[in-house]
Each structure stands twice: as structure tokens, then as C-alpha cells.
């Protein structure tokens, strides 16, 4: 037992050493020229804003999408069974006229009509509320979310999956969680959604092998990364603008090793 622990400790030390050495330099964000603009509701090019600019909206919703032409329209406008992004936000705006928001659909190099479908809602609601950022090539979910975050205008930024796995109305819960974290150190705070209460139902639908892999992954995340967050894999997270800037500026990996891209690769 002692010998096994020694081997594990040596391996863990090597991993930490490699991570420390490779993470010294801040990663740079490369944008293709076409990714510096978006098409507005009149069909004209406009320059994208920057996360480093002052916020001009209360909320930005970043929706990474890869081959989501069917599910994207459901999440954006469906009124039954779940409150969609646009329906919920429009109702919130009616209740409080000072409430301002934007939805940024990031097409992560899709091979289907995701951009075309999303542009319909850009024209319907206006590009001040719905914007479509089309990436030249697939980056992975982490890269797609980062591109959306870096092009947002919101004081708070919500990342939400296009498949609608989490009801958009649940934003009220993560908003409450964010308020409960006040005072925010340096205006930085993150509130994470959770599906841990649905774990029993999901286990019943998985094979034994996938369930084993799930528990193994959860253990590694708990042991090596964070212990306080029950569901690190939920794609429903609300961040303050400064927290989003700090978090995604230090993102080294755009694909599977980061939660922000663990569920989808090209």
C-alpha cells in the first residue's frame, strides 16, 4: 500500500510540475479576420465589442452551438415545457424596462445550418438582442464559449448549452447564488448550476461502464481540482464580467480537458 502511494505521489508531483511550467505564459486568443465581425439584422458587418470594454448590458447569454440547427431554435423560442432564452428575457424586460440583455449564439464551425437558423432570430428580435458569431473552424466548446464571452457586453455573463438541458428559467437560481456570494472579491464571482439532484435518474439510463467512467471522472475532479462544486459538468454558469475575463483569459485548453468543452469535439 505504501509503495503504491509513493508511485501515485511521484506521478502527481510530475503532473503538477508540468502544469506549472507550461502555464507560466498567458495563452493568446487568435481570431481569424472574419471572427472580428458579426452580421447585423440588416445584413451589414459590425465590429464585435470586447470583454475589456465597459459593460453596456445587464446580462449576456453565450450559447455555444455545433450542428445545432434543430435544438438551437427550440432553446431560443420554444414556449412550451421550458421557458426559452428570448421569451424569458423579453418577459423580464417587460417587468423591468431597465433590464437589458443580449444573446450570443456562437456557431463553432458547424456543418449544418446553425448560423442560418440563428440569424432568423437575429432578424426577428434585432441584432442588439441576438447576435451570431460564426467561427471559421471548430475550436471545441471551450474555445467557442471563450469567443462568445470575449465578445459580450453584459455586466453578468451566462453560459448555457444549446440543447436546453437546463431550463432557462433556472437563471433565477444561479442569480440568487451569485447574490449570496457577496461581497465579491475584486468584483469576481461565479455561480454554477447543478444537476446533481438528477443523478439517480441519469444513472438508470446509463450502461454500467459509462457509470463507472462517470464516477472515476468525478473522483479525479474532486481530488485534483475542486471539492465544493457537486456538478462541475453542468453547462449553466453565471459569471460577473471581471470573473469571466479572468477565467477565460487563462484558458489554455479549448477542447475536452476543460469543462467548457468536455462534451463535444469536432
What is the gist of this entry?
The chain is an alpha/beta fold.
Provide a descriptive summary of the structure in words.
- The chain is α/β, with parallel strands linked by helices.
- 39% of the residues lie in helices and 16% in strands.
- The protein has nine helices and eight strands.
- The protein has helices at residues 2-22, 69-77, 85-95, 114-125, 141-149, 171-180, 199-205, 208-224, 241-249, and strands at residues 37-39, 45-47, 57-65, 101-107, 130-134, 154-160, 190-192, 236-240.
- The strands form two sheets. It has a six-stranded mixed β-sheet, with helices on both faces. A two-stranded antiparallel ribbon has the order 1-2.
- Strand 4 (101-107), helix 4 and strand 5 (130-134) form a beta-alpha-beta unit.
- Helix 2 runs parallel beside helix 4 (114-125).
- The protein is globular.
- The termini are far apart.
- Residues 78-82 and 258-266 have low confidence and may be disordered.
Supply database-style keywords.
266 residues, six-stranded mixed beta sheet, two-stranded antiparallel ribbon, globular
In whole angstroms, how far apart are the ends?
A: 41 Å
Averaged pLDDT:
79
Q: Provide the structure class.
A: alpha/beta
Shape field: globular
Main sheet record: 6 strands, mixed
Q: Largest beta sheet: what is the strand line-up? A: 5-4-3-6-8-7
Tally of alpha and pi helices: 9
Amino acid at each position: 500500500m505504501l509503495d503504491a502511494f509513493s508511485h501515485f505521489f511521484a506521478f502527481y508531483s510530475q503532473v503538477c510540475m508540468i502544469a506549472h511550467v507550461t502555464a507560466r505564459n498567458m495563452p493568446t486568443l487568435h481570431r481569424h479576420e472574419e471572427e472580428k465581425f458579426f452580421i447585423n439584422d440588416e445584413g451589414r458587418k459590425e465590429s464585435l465589442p470586447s470583454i475589456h470594454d465597459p459593460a453596456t448590458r445587464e446580462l449576456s447569454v453565450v450559447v455555444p452551438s455545433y450542428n445545432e440547427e434543430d435544438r438551437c431554435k427550440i432553446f431560443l423560442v420554444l414556449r412550451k415545457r421550458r421557458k426559452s432564452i428570448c421569451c424569458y428575457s423579453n418577459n423580464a424586460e417587460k417587468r423591468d424596462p431597465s433590464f437589458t440583455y443580449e444573446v450570443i449564439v456562437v456557431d463553432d464551425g458547424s456543418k449544418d445550418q446553425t448560423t442560418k437558423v440563428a440569424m432568423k432570430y437575429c432578424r426577428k428580435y434585432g441584432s442588439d438582442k441576438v447576435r451570431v458569431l460564426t467561427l471559421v473552424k471548430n475550436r471545441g466548446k471551450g474555445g467557442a464559449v471563450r469567443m462568445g464571452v470575449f465578445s459580450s457586453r453584459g455586466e453578468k455573463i451566462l453560459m448555457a448549452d444549446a440543447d436546453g438541458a437546463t431550463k432557462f428559467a433556472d437563471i433565477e437560481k444561479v442569480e440568487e447564488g451569485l447574490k449570496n456570494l457577496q461581497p465579491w472579491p475584486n468584483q469576481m464571482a461565479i455561480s454554477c448550476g447543478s444537476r446533481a439532484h438528477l443523478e439517480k435518474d441519469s444513472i438508470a439510463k446509463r450502461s454500467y461502464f459509462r457509470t463507472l467512467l462517470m464516477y472515476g471522472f468525478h473522483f479525479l475532479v474532486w481530488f485534483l481540482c475542486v471539492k465544493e462544486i457537486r456538478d462541475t459538468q453542468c453547462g449553466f454558469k453565471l459569471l460577473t464580467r471581471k470573473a469571466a475575463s479572468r477565467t477565460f483569459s487563462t484558458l489554455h485548453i479549448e477542447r475536452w480537458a476543460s469543462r467548457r468543452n468536455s462534451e463535444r469535439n469536432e
